[in-house]
Amino acid sequence: GNTTTEFDQALAFALARVVEVGEGCSSEFRAGRPLSGVTLLRATVEHASVLVHLCRKLSAHLAITKPANSVAYVTKIEEILAVAVFGTRFNWPQNINSDDLATLERKEREYTKDENGLNLRAQVMDAIDSADAECPGFRAAYEILCEFAHPNIGATWLVNDVPVQHVDSMGIQWIARRLRSQSPDVAVPHAFGAAVRVVDSCLLRFRDWVEQYRGYRPRVLQAVQFAVRTTGRSALALLNPYDPCPCGSGAKAKFCCRA
Amino acid sequence: LATISCPAIAEIVDRLVADATREI
After folding, report:
1. Radius of gyration (C-alpha) of chain B in whole angstroms
2. ipTM of the complex, rounded to two decimals
3. For A169, how many CA atoms within 13 A lie in the half-sphere containing its CB?
4. Which residue of B has its CA nearest to A184?
5. Residues of A in contact with B15 (CB under 8 A)
6. Which of A188, A204, A206 lies at the smallest CB-CB distance from B2?
7. What mean pLDDT is predicted for residues A8-15?
8. Do A202 and A135 contact (CB within 8 A), yes or no?
9. What is the DSSP secondary structure assignment for residue A40, as one 8-state letter?
């Protein structure tokens, strides 16, 4: 019966992560630190794309209108929401108190077993691919951002000024690179500009995704109520009839699923 | 090479943050 509450919380957590990382990103760019700015831009894009992924997975699941097992149907919704907030690659359940990391084998580090019947395995590329399906070019843009956020050539471009080139009398071309001064502009390959434009046009749709997500709430509530009424109504007799109904409708149990 | 403006990227991200903040 917590599924509807978790539905609301999943959105709040996803948005809070976007806000925190996004604020950091913006202030790094404004402070004239494009390398840390791009690193956080990549992270912001990852956090924002989780919402697209969540919408696509919910949409596909809610398209099943006549589930064979109403409880399994709600459990799957639960899993989709839980992955968006608590998804992991590292095996936290087993290692949360580990202090000897040197001896942790790969098999012990990786999260593979389900937790309480829920599969919480997640990697960010799933979300990036979902965003790419909605905004073509998003994955390429993400990979370009990675090239600038990792200690690769892109990161080197971001820490130097616009290079000065000249050809000497022998016809040899010289390129003078200098570590960046605090200028608000950075010289980068055209593909970087293209990546920023893709990110821009994709993030313009962020509010639509939030609306889309909110739009699934009535159907999630309906699925929870169906599961409660078909399989769990007897348990409702244990509750005070004037307490809020556990389905999350906001009505009192007596006038909601218990009725 | 192209020149990108850091404040322009910050504006893109600020808009996202404003959208997300409004929804929380």
Report:
1. 12
2. 0.96
3. 0
4. B6
5. 203-204
6. A188
7. 96
8. yes
9. H
